């Protein structure tokens, strides 16, 4: 079995700031997680950042190892694509990829508040876990990728076109994330 979370580390552990909190706009809270992808003869990894309210995947990166650069590059993509304001809550598990100094410092640079699920409690990061299950069952397990580049192209298409653009969510009134967010901004203009 492949494990992606190593919470045995010396870095600071942050409290869970999202338990019982309701968010009502984009970019107030992001959740992050990572998973593995089986290629022919090896495993590679996928890190994603998800907006908890719109359910959009706002950042992702795949790579051959579980180094902190994997999650940091997914975070950087999200930061480049979104209009982040100080106070954003970034929620993850307590894995070393999210607790390390470089990642935490980057979050502090943009004024983000850090939130972490308790060790061994995936229910406290349920949005991210559910998202990863969807990617696994609807894309990763349905394909046999020949290479890292093959995985990158297929997963990027799934995330941008299928998941963000077409996949209906009951929590969003049976709308896809992109449409739900667009409706939110259109309502602000009226």
UniProtKB/TrEMBL annotation:
Entry coiled-coil feature ranges: none
Superkingdom of origin: Bacteria
Residue span, Integrase catalytic domain: 22-184
Matches recorded under Pfam families: rve (PF00665)
Any single GO BP term: DNA integration
Signal peptide: none
GO MF annotations in UniProt: nucleic acid binding
NCBIfam families: transpos_IS3
Protein name: Integrase catalytic domain-containing protein
């Amino acid at each position: 079995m492949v494990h992606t979370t190593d919470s045995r580390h010396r870095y600071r552990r942050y409290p869970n700031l999202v338990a019982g909190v309701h968010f009502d706009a984009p970019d107030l809270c992001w959740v992050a997680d990572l998973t593995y992808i089986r290629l022919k003869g090896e495993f590679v990894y996928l890190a994603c950042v998800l907006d908890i309210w719109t359910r959009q995947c706002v950042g992702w990166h795949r790579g051959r190892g579980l180094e902190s650069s994997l999650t940091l590059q997914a975070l950087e993509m999200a930061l480049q694509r979104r209009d982040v304001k100080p106070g954003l809550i970034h929620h993850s598990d307590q894995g070393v990829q999210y607790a390390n100094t470089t990642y935490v410092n980057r979050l502090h640079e943009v004024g983000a508040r850090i939130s972490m699920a308790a060790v061994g409690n995936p229910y406290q990061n349920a949005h991210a876990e559910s998202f990863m299950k969807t990617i696994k069952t609807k894309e990763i397990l349905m394909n046999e990728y020949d290479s890292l580049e093959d995985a990158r192209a297929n997963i990027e298409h799934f995330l941008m076109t299928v998941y963000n653009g077409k996949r209906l969510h009951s929590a969003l009134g049976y709308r896809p994330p992109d449409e739900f967010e667009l409706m939110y901004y259109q309502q602000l203009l009226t």
